[in-house]
Amino acid sequence: xxxxxxxxxxxxxxxxxxxxxxxxxxxxxxxxxxxxxxxxxxxxxxxxxxxxxxxxxxxxxxxxxxxxxxxxxxxxxxxxxxxxxxxxxxxxxxxxxxxxxxxxxxxxxxxxxxxxxxxxxxxxxxxxxxxxxxxxxxxxxxxxxxxxxxxxxx
Length: 154
Fold this sequence. Notes:
Elements: E1 2-4, E2 14-16, E3 21-27, E4 31-35, E5 44-49, E6 53-59, H1 65-71, E7 82-88, E8 99-116, E9 124-141, E10 146-149
């Protein structure tokens, strides 16, 4: 995962997210409609939308560029809490050296714990990455840290 740490700038600066992170859980947040008709024994379900939320937790790492940026969003409201996020499919075969299938999406950063914990233990850093709208499919170059959208299909 890569987060844009310069959302106000014209050029995006993506940095790796994950230092100190112990877990990240995906929740697709599906909206499901269910129908059951009197002539049928069983009902049917249709997924009509998703609102993906990625919940993370781990140790606070002072000086980690991704965490330091996210820390600035603790009290942010509205679009001030938003930035770009790239989910890279690094487990798939690269398109070329260091270039992997990916998707970029606007996200809202919701920090739920900005540094608390037991005495003598590492400070905890927890929150949510809430996807806003549809992701853009493309590729991400892990060396240059640039996202390239796929060509529109005709």
